[in-house]
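ok so for the tutorial part 2 we go from a plain amino acid sequence to predicted structure tokens. step 1 is just haveing the sequence, like this:
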Amino acid sequence: MGEFFDEIKRYIGFTAEDAATLARLHAVLSPDFRTFAEHFYDVIERHPRARAVFAGPTQVERLKGTLVEWMESGLIGPHDERYYERRSRIGRRHVVIGLPQEYMFTAMNVLRLDFHRSISHGVADRAAACAATAAVDKLLDLELAIMLRHYQVDSEERLLRLVNRPEVG
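step 2 — the prediction. this is what the tokens look like for a chain of 169 residues:
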């Protein structure tokens, strides 16, 4: 799967400079990570189909901490094969728990907008803010590509099982 990840990085133009920009951005955004996680799960709470995949408040509190760690590692990197494997586990987990992909996809926009807002307030230099926003967008698009890949693989596997199922009757 490293080939998949490398191809996606090339496709969106995720460069070493983007990775360096994200690492520098960590100091700006990290004080807000807990607020972002709270907002993220507040949005989920307002949508019954998205909320239904969670076991309750204890699990949500644990997942807020996991989301903070996800944000940390996304900005700090490195964005290598191990990164891809860790992110793939998350994508597979979303499939296993039955999180509808439209919520996974649109939830990423909740984080994207929170990141953009903090960049606009925390990065005074306009060129640096634009570079930071572009790097965040590329990172979140990488995340989406990884997660959507697992929904695709699951769909293909279900279809194969259906096609290869012995006929009854």
